[in-house]
Amino acid sequence: MRKLPFCFLLAAILYFAAPISCAIGDEPNARVKALVVDDARRKLAGEVVDYRTGVYSMLHEGGFSDSETREYIRPILEEYGFSEASIVKYFNLFDPHYHGGERERLEERRKMVETLLN
């Protein structure tokens, strides 16, 4: 009898989490982009939300590090016209010590990869 509620819980987790985790790969699709943009807009607008829910937290709990999560989300936010200040503010909601310095690090990494490939 105790297995039945557990099965329902497992089914609910798979129903809601599996489509998002399957959709998250190297290239974000339209559904993931829409989730990221909606989540960022709501949180930046000051809407009271639970920070344990949302795309950032789902990626982080799914095994992404903070920097991997930001590297995944940042291009989506830039594509949809979020300013650098609003992106930094969004990431600050999850990591109060975030200062936005990863941009230079990513540029250095890109140059290093280009140098190695050429």
From TrEMBL:
UniProt keyword terms in alphabetical order: Signal
Leader sequence residues: 1-23
Protein's recorded name: DUF4296 domain-containing protein
Taxonomic lineage from the root: Bacteria, Pseudomonadati, Thermodesulfobacteriota, Desulfovibrionia, Desulfovibrionales
